[in-house]
């Protein structure tokens, strides 16, 4: 499943049609017919997003937004409102009430699904930043947030024929206190002193996709990749509108540049960007020296352990499994003995980079000690964790690492995997122990392999073991050549 969605609508036909469309896109769908039922269902299923009809038997969709977010304990819970008509006043009122988006019936499936994907991506990215900030606070490294905020820099980029661009700039200046500038497309990737906070791409007549082609360039630009991007399409550009969301646009106006609606969406995107910028800055500045390994740049054990506690709490709240992987380099001692410690350091650095490059942004990678690494995977099933671990083993085995002297060396991994099951109250310390047992079992099997923690049973206390048995590698710890 790509996500959990709660559909709230008093009309059974509407719920069924929407469930069929979302299920076909691999979403897990739950349903409710009223505000009260929605809150009850929300507490049971903990969805990632809620789609709410504007009118309900016991409340309104707008009134339900705040109650849902209060129940979630998360002001960022994505909520989309459905309206029976395309009334501009109703649409603006819903956006002002906190709806992340407003869709009018009949629904355009292409654009709707693109909107949902975009909202869920944004939620996951923000949740990961918040999770890491929570870990930082648990370590006692939090600082008071400054209450002073400078005006945001908004860049309007009109393409094709857009005669209303200057009047739109004037309308926005009337509604906002931020700095708003007009920029031609050929200068959109440049900035004078500071990068823009928000870039608004305005598709005009005859643009022939010029605005759409700017999106990936802006997203890949080092200085502007964290800017919020809003794409304004014309009513006949539904394909471009859907593509823009999938190519990295944070928000969309699908019926041309309406100044009042654009101002509302700009304020929300500016607020989100400032929050995300603050969380990124907190993480980079406050944690680097205290909780990062100076050799590899990865997080160290001091960061990883409280992060796992936060991850376990979130998994319990959301009802989702997570995975812990303990990875150990095979025969690493022989690398130091044969090639020197400088080569060993280079290997650790290269392995660290390879792990980061081949895991999800939401996955935590930490150096857990010596040549041992820990990977924490939120929202990971047993099968996904196993497949990921096996892929990492293949990747290391098939791609030798370069040493400082120009030589190459093949390094392999042994990996133990443990799964934290939602609802079972698994403690991170117990999962680390299970993953460590599985790691030793992987070493016993000949290394360069993966062992799942639930296939390895804890050793009995020494007094209960048969005396005739010789101690195994599990009992003695490490082999003569290292793990």
Q: Can you put this structure into words, describing what you see?
A:
- Residues 4-120 form the Response regulatory domain.
- Residues 320-455 form the GGDEF domain.
- The protein has 483 residues and is α/β, with parallel strands linked by helices.
- The protein has three domains: 4-107, Rossmann fold (3-Layer(aba) Sandwich), CATH 3.40.50.2300; 153-284, Rossmann fold, CATH 3.40.50.2300; 292-476, Alpha-Beta Plaits.
- The chain has helices at residues 12-24, 35-45, 61-72, 88-96, 109-138, 165-175, 210-220, 238-246, 259-291, 301-318, 332-339, 341-357, 382-398, 428-444, 473-476; strands at residues 4-8, 28-32, 49-53, 79-83, 101-104, 153-159, 179-182, 198-203, 228-232, 251-253, 322-329, 364-369, 372-377, 401-402, 408-409, 413-420, 450-452.
- It has a five-stranded parallel β-sheet with strand order 2-1-3-4-5, with helices on both faces. A five-stranded parallel β-sheet has the order 7-6-8-9-10, sandwiched between helices. It has a five-stranded mixed β-sheet with strand order 12-13-11-16-17, with helices on both faces.
- β1, α1 (12-24) and β2 form a beta-alpha-beta unit.
- α4 runs parallel beside α9 (259-291), α5 runs parallel beside α8 (238-246) and α11 crosses α12 (341-357).
- It is globular.
- Mean pLDDT is 87; it is low at 464-482.
- From the alpha-carbon coordinates, what is the Rg to the nearest angstrom? 26 Å
- Which architecture of the largest domain does the CATH hierarchy give at level 2? 2-Layer Sandwich
What's the number of structural domains?
3
- Looking at CATH, the homologous superfamily of the largest domain is Reverse transcriptase/Diguanylate cyclase domain
Low-confidence stretches: 464-482
Please report the total strand number as a whole number. 17
> Number of helical segments?
15
Strand content: 15-25%
Overall mean pLDDT stands at: 87
| Morphology | globular
* Main beta-sheet annotation: 5 strands, parallel
Broad CATH class of the largest domain = Alpha Beta
Structural category: alpha/beta
CATH topology of the largest domain: Alpha-Beta Plaits
């Amino acid at each position: 499943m790509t996500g959990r969605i709660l559909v709230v609508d008093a009309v059974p036909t509407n719920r069924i049609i929407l469930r069929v469309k979302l299920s076909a896109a691999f979403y897990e769908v739950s349903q409710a017919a009223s505000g009260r039922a929605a809150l009850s269902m929300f507490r049971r299923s903990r969805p990632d997003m809620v789609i709410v009809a504007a009118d309900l038997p016991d409340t309104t969709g707008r009134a339900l937004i705040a109650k849902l977010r209060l129940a979630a304990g998360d002001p960022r819970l994505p909520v989309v409102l459905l309206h029976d008509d395309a009334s501009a006043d109703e649409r603006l009122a819903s956006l002002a009430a906190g709806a992340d988006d407003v869709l009018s019936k009949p629904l355009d499936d292409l654009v709707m699904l693109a909107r949902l994907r975009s909202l869920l991506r944004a939620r996951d990215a923000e949740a990961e930043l918040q999770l890491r900030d929570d870990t930082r606070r648990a370590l006692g490294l939090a600082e008071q947030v400054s209450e002073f905020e400078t005006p945001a820099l908004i860049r309007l980029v009109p393409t094709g024929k857009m005669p209303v661009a200057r009047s739109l700039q004037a309308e926005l200046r009337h509604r906002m206190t931020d700095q708003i500038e007009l920029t031609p497309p050929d200068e959109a990737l440049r900035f004078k002193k500071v990068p823009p906070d928000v870039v608004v791409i305005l598709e005009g007549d005859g643009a022939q996709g010029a605005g759409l082609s700017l999106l990936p360039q802006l997203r890949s630009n080092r200085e502007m990749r964290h800017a919020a991007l809003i794409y304004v399409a014309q009513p006949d550009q539904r394909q471009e509108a859907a593509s823009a969301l999938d190519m990295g646009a944070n928000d969309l106006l699908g019926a041309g540049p309406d100044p009042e609606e654009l101002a509302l969406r700009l304020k929300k995107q500016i607020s989100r960007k400032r929050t995300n910028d603050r969380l990124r800055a907190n993480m980079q500045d406050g944690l680097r020296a205290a909780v990062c390994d100076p050799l590899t740049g990865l997080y160290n054990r001091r960061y990883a352990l409280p992060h796992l506690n936060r991850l376990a709490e979130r998994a319990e709240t959301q009802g989702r499994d997570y995975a812990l992987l303990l990875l150990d380099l095979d025969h690493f001692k022989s690398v130091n003995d044969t090639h020197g410690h400088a080569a060993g350091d280079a290997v650790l650095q290269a392995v660290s980079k390879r792990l980061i490059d081949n895991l999800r942004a939401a996955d935590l990678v930490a150096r857990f000690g010596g040549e041992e690494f820990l990977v924490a995977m939120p929202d990971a099933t047993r099968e996904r964790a196993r497949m990921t671990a096996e892929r990492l083993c293949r990747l290391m085995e098939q791609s030798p690492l370069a040493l400082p002297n120009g030589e190459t060396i093949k390094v392999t991994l042994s990996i133990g995997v443990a799964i934290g099951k939602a609802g079972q109250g698994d403690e991170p310390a117990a999962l680390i122990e299970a993953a460590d047992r599985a790691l030793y079992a992987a070493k016993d099997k000949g290394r360069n392999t993966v062992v799942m923690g639930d296939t390895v049973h804890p050793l009995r206390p020494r007094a209960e073991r048969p005396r005739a048995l010789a101690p195994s590698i599990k009992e003695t710890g490490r082999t003569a050549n290292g793990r």
